[in-house]
Amino acid sequence: MAETFETIRYTADIIVTRTDGHVLLIERGWPPYEGAWALPGGHVDPGETSRAAAARELAEETGIYATPAELDLVGVFDAPGRDPRGRYVTVAYHLTVIRNTPIEAGDDATRAEWWPLDDLPESLAFDHAEILAAAVDTL
């Protein structure tokens, strides 16, 4: 019997909420889901933890700086088909910030905006609506 191996890519996502009930989303600058709203996040670099990757991606994409220790684990999301590029496993984290926290889109984000949790875009990229729902359930 031949064994089949699957390439799995490792990513980290971050849900940032403000104390006034808003969540930070980025508009993606390239495929997949170019132009769609998503949570900040990206690939875990070699030798990096997912928590450190989440803090790095947050700074690169939104200009918000947090230490890895400030991020709370939300969960692991690994459903096959969650990313059209192949098999991706993401670890999601949460951070709460104050209302006046400034943001600035950078890296692969064309825009970064605060959205009311009760008035989100109609659809989010990937499975980010599911990840966001899991984070909100823990708040």
Written description of the protein model:
The chain has 139 residues and is α+β, with helices and mostly antiparallel strands. The chain has a single domain, classed as Nucleoside Triphosphate Pyrophosphohydrolase (Alpha-Beta Complex). Helices cover 17% and strands 35% of the residues. The strands form 2 sheets. Strands 4-1-6-5 form a 4-stranded mixed sheet, with helices on both faces. Strand 2 (22-28) and strand 3 form a beta hairpin. The longest helix is centred in the middle third of the chain and has 13 residues, at 50-62. It is globular. The mean pLDDT is 95.
Keywords:
139 residues; alpha+beta; Nucleoside Triphosphate Pyrophosphohydrolase; four-stranded mixed β-sheet; three-stranded antiparallel β-sheet; 2 helices; 7 strands; 17% helix
First CA to last CA: what distance? 47 Å
How would you spell out the order of helices and strands?
A: EEEEHEEEH
Give the structural class.
Answer: alpha+beta
> Could you give the count of β-strands?
7
Mean of all residue-level pLDDT scores: 95
Largest sheet: 4 strands, mixed
Helical percent range?
A: 10-25%
Task: Classify the fold: give the CATH topology.
Answer: Nucleoside Triphosphate Pyrophosphohydrolase
**Broad shape:** globular
Detail the topology: elements first, then pairings.
Layout: E1 8-18, E2 22-28, E3 37-38, E4 41-43, H1 50-62, E5 72-77, E6 87-97, E7 109-116, H2 128-138
Parallel strand pairs: 1-6
Antiparallel strand pairs: 1-4, 2-3, 2-7, 5-6
